[in-house]
Design brief:
alpha+beta, 5-stranded antiparallel beta sheet, Alpha-Beta Plaits, 6 helices
Length: 305
C-alpha cells in the first residue's frame, strides 16, 4: 500500500498550507525586517543630531578637540547598544510570527546565562570596569595614552576591551578588567618637558635668556602659534649631571601637538646655542695614574732644532 506521504493529495495540501502561511505571515516578517532597518537608520540620524548637541554643550567647558573625542566615544557605545536592542526585538517578533513559543526559549537562555555567568566573572568585571572608564571620562577615542606601560593611540573603547595602536603600528587589545594603570597624555592639554644640558663653564642666566628667546620666537611663528597654549616656562637649574648643568623648561601645547612643537624647539635651540657659542657638553673623563692618585698630565715637548 502506497504511503500517504507519497500521494499527490498530500503534496497539494502541504503546498496549499505553505501558501496560506506565507500569505498570512511573510508580509509581516518582511515589514518587521524593514522596521528594523528603518529603526537603525533613524538611530544613526538621532545620534548624529545628539552628537552636535553634546559637542556644543561640552565646548563651554572644554575645547573643541576634547569635545569631539568625548562625544565620539560616548556615541559609539550608544550606537552599539541601540542596534543590539533593535535587532533583539526584531528577532523576538519574527519568532512569534513563526509560531515559536519564546517563553521556554527565554527561560532556557536565562538558565544558560546564569550557568555561564559563574564562569564569566572576568567578562562581568571587564564590562563594569569599562562602564566606569566611560563614566569617569578617563580616556577617549583619539587620545594618546599609556595602559599598563604600553603607549599608543586609543583607536576604540568598548565595554569589554580597549584597542591601542603604538608608534610602530602594532595593535594592542586590553581587557578593561585587567587595566591597572591609565595615563592620558592628551587630556585637555599636553606639554613637552625639556632637560637642557650645558657645560659647567656657561652662565646659566644667559642660557635661560636664550631658551626664553627661542621659545617666544617659536610661539610667534604663524605655523606654531595655534599649537602653543602658553609662553615657555623655565624652571631654572634642575640638577648637576656628570658633565652638564641641566636646566628644565616646559612648553604647554594643544593635545597631541607636543611632539611636533618639541622637535621644532630643539632644532631652533641647537642653532641658537651654536650662534652664541653655548657648549652642549659631551661626557668628560679624568684619568688617574700611580699610587699617589694624581691626575695624568699630558704635556707637549718640543724637539731641539
Amino acid at each position: 500500500m502506497e504511503s500517504k506521504i507519497f500521494t499527490s493529495e498530500f503534496w497539494v495540501e502541504a503546498g496549499n498550507q505553505m501558501i496560506d502561511w506565507s500569505v498570512a505571515n511573510v508580509p509581516g516578517i518582511i515589514l518587521v525586517i524593514i522596521f528594523g532597518l528603518i529603526a537603525t537608520k533613524f538611530l544613526n540620524f538621532l545620534l548624529k543630531k545628539l552628537r552636535a548637541v553634546i559637542t556644543k554643550r561640552l565646548r563651554k567647558e572644554e575645547n573643541a578637540f576634547e569635545s569631539e573625542k568625548r562625544a565620539e566615544t560616548l556615541l559609539g557605545i550608544l550606537k552599539g547598544v541601540g542596534k543590539l536592542v533593535i535587532w533583539t526585538m526584531v528577532i523576538i517578533i519574527i519568532l512569534k510570527k513563526l509560531t515559536i513559543d519564546i517563553g521556554p526559549l527565554l527561560a532556557g537562555v536565562g538558565i544558560v546565562g546564569l550557568a555561564v555567568g559563574f564562569g564569566a566573572q572576568e567578562l562581568v568585571r571587564d564590562i563594569i570596569t569599562g562602564f566606569f572608564i566611560l563614566l569617569e571620562n578617563q580616556i577617549r577615542q583619539g587620545d594618546i595614552a599609556i595602559l599598563n606601560s604600553t603607549g599608543g593611540l586609543v583607536e576604540n573603547i568598548g565595554l569589554r576591551t580597549i584597542t591601542l595602536r603604538d608608534f610602530s603600528g602594532v595593535v594592542h587589545v586590553f581587557q578593561n578588567g585587567k587595566i591597572n594603570t591609565v595615563s592620558n597624555m592628551t587630556k585637555e592639554w599636553s606639554a613637552m618637558v625639556f632637560d637642557i644640558g650645558v657645560a659647567y663653564k656657561e652662565n646659566t642666566d644667559s642660557v635661560s635668556a636664550i631658551i626664553k628667546q627661542v621659545g617666544d620666537e617659536l610661539q610667534a611663528d604663524e605655523k606654531f602659534k595655534e599649537k602653543i597654549l602658553e609662553p615657555i616656562e623655565i624652571f631654572g637649574v634642575d640638577s648637576f649631571a656628570d658633565s652638564a648643568v641641566v636646566i628644565k623648561a616646559r612648553l604647554k601645547t594643544k593635545p597631541v601637538e607636543q611632539w611636533t612643537v618639541g622637535r621644532e624647539f630643539r632644532g631652533r635651540l641647537k642653532k641658537a646655542f651654536d650662534a652664541n657659542g653655548i657648549e652642549i657638553p659631551f661626557p668628560h673623563r679624568t684619568l688617574y695614574w700611580g699610587e699617589e692618585i694624581k691626575p695624568l698630565q699630558i704635556t707637549k715637548s718640543e724637539k731641539a732644532s
